Every structure is written in C-alpha cells, then in structure tokens.
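[09:14] KT: can someone run the structure on this one? pasting the chain below
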Amino acid sequence: MIWSRRQLINMYGITEITVHATYHRINPSDIKSPAGSVVGKPIPDLRFYILDAWLQPAPLGVSGEIYIGGAGVARGYLNRPELTEQRFIRDPFSADTEARLYKTGDLGRWLPDGSIEYLGRNDFQVKIRGFRIELGEIEALLAKCPGVSEAVVIAREDKTGDKRLVAYLVAQDEGKLTASDLRAQLAENLPDYMLPGAFVMLPVLPLTVNGKLDRQALPAPEDEAYAAHEYQAPVSEAEVMLAKIWAEVLQLERVGVNDSFFAIGGDSIRCIAVVAKAKTAGLAIAVIDIFKHQTIANLAKALAMPKEVAAVEEVMQLIDQEDQRKLPPGIEDAYGVMLLQMGMVYHNQYAQEQSLYHDVFSSLLTIPKWNEDILRIVWMRCPGNIQSFVRLLIYTATANLCSWFIRKRKYR
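[09:31] RB: done, structure tokens below
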C-alpha cells in the first residue's frame, strides 16, 4: 500500500436519503481550521437546501435547517404516516408536485467555497451507540407513568465517549418513584436501547432566570438512580473480582451480586470493557456470557462450571436436505448467503482493482474470475500460521440464483 494514496473522507449522511449525502476530503489544513465539522459538498444526485423557519434559503454563513431532495430521498416511514408527513415535505423549489424534501433536523450553514458546515441538531434527537433516539418519545411515556409529575431525559456524557440516557423526574404529591418500576414500565413500550440507564428523582426541575429548563444544572446520577436490587455483597473470589470490575466500568460505588448489568447502566459497549478488564484479572468471559448471565451471581456460577471437553456444533442446519445433496463432498458446513453478501461479492468482482472489501485482519479478499458453473475459492491470507479457506458455491436452479458460503478451515 502506498501511503500517499490514502485519503481520509468525511461524509455526512442520513438513512432517509439513502445514507451518503456529502463528500469532503480531509486535508491537514482542516485540522487547524477554525471552522467546525465541515461535511463538504452535496453528491451530484441530491439537492441541498439550508432553510429558515419559513422555508426560505438562509444567506451565506447563516445557520439554518438542512433539507435534502433528489433521487436518494426515501418514500417515507413504513406504517408511520404521521411521521412521514412531518419529515418528508413537498419540495417548494421543484415544479414536480411529487418531489419531496427530507427535513433532517440538522443545522448547518453554507461556506464561501460551497461546502456545508454541520452545526448540530435543532431538536432533542440524539445518537447513542449508533441508534437515533427521540428524547421526547421517552419523556412522553415517562409522563404517563403513575406518580410522575414532570419528566426530562437527556444524553449525559460525563466522561468523553461515554454517552448514556438519564431520566430526571419529579413525583406527584411527594410520592415515591423507584428506578426499577419506571424501567419496567418503559420496557413494555420501548426497545432496550431507548431505556434510560439511570432515573434521578428531584424535588423540582432546575430552571434558568427565564423560566426555562436548565439542562446544565441537572445533577449526575448517583447509585440510587439505578434499577438495582437490594444490595447483597459478593462472597466468592470471582464475585468480588466481577463486582469490582462492574463498579469501575459503570462508575458506581458498589454493585450487588443480584443486580442486572443492563438495568444498572450497562450496555453492549460496556460489556466489551468488562470483558477486557476481566481478561486482565484472569477471568475468561466473553460478551455473550454477560448477555446470558446478567448478574454477578449467575456469571460467577457459569465461570465455576467445568468446561466441556469439546463443543458439539450442529452443522448443515441452515439449508434443506435437497440443497445438501447438491454440495460437493468434503464440506464441513454451509449456510445461505444473504443479499448483502451477494452484493459484496458483486462489487468485489465489478471493481477488483479498488479492494472494496477486506476481512477482519485487513487482508485483501480476492476472488478469481466470475464463473457460475464452477466452484470458486475465496482465500484470505491471515497473520500467523493459520490459513483460512472459504469456499463459495454458486449454482443456478431454474430462474433463481441460489448461493452458499461454505466454510472449511485448514490448520497447519
């Protein structure tokens, strides 16, 4: 690889307009530039508008909301006509009555060179661990919970890169609210990634001198803000080590052996941190173990269980017997290829010189010349003394193209 050919690209994009919308090649001067997040210029098949509250174009350098039109704009949200009508508006700048603009909710401004500077959100939508979350939706459900007078949800980032949802509540008539009850009620209507990790009870919400919510004055959550069980101290050596690790990762003073990892602020990203610290401490656990055994008590018991001499893997479970008979001899396992994988194969064939797809070791994935009539081999050169061979069989049956990725590993 010639280093001078490498480029760092900043692309702004949204799912509703088929992901990519702008393109900006990062230069060393960008790092020193006083401008914020420059996302570049629109790609050719999209139309960008930065509009004010009256849907009029904002002048050069003036902040406005980003609206996007053109070929990439989706038709709307499946089975959500109200939200579709709100977000996908008629394009007032097009003679085509069917043309639509997507209202992004993002703020930006035009720069003199025709690029766009991203300035943040104009609403309370946040992104955590790749999920876009409407805070107002969570607040509305909390307000319906018995005993809740007021509710506010924010995305706190007390530690750089560690963003989490925190709910702040005021009880009705000095009633008592518990994090466990509130979390359970929200879980009936919200997916896990939208559940606040902490529930902070306040006598009143802090306000600015203008009578608006003072979000900066909302306190950091303490231990009682989490949906923990009655504290039970760790006993065994494994429980003590796990409790220390969980408390460190979740930034809690202590963790009981019956507390659920995900109910007290844990998530998939923090699972990885737990696994890394456990490995350093000599505990062999995997992320899947935390999902299976969500309390320290259960996880410690799983660690104490004797390891099986050999794991029996069920093979050929994902294809039917008719397809199994069409496989060549010597195949260990096979599974149906997804459309996404087929697309990867296609693009790798279409632009072989561009090295579009790589394996997890960043080794070039190479496929011989396309031929549907023969068995082809995909090989990956991996570091160390292990070579993995992945066989790909593609055959044509009637009008349908059926495919499998067939794995067969060889160790030497």
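[09:33] KT: thanks! Residues 95 and 257 are 65 Å apart (CA to CA).
[09:34] RB: yep, looked fine to me
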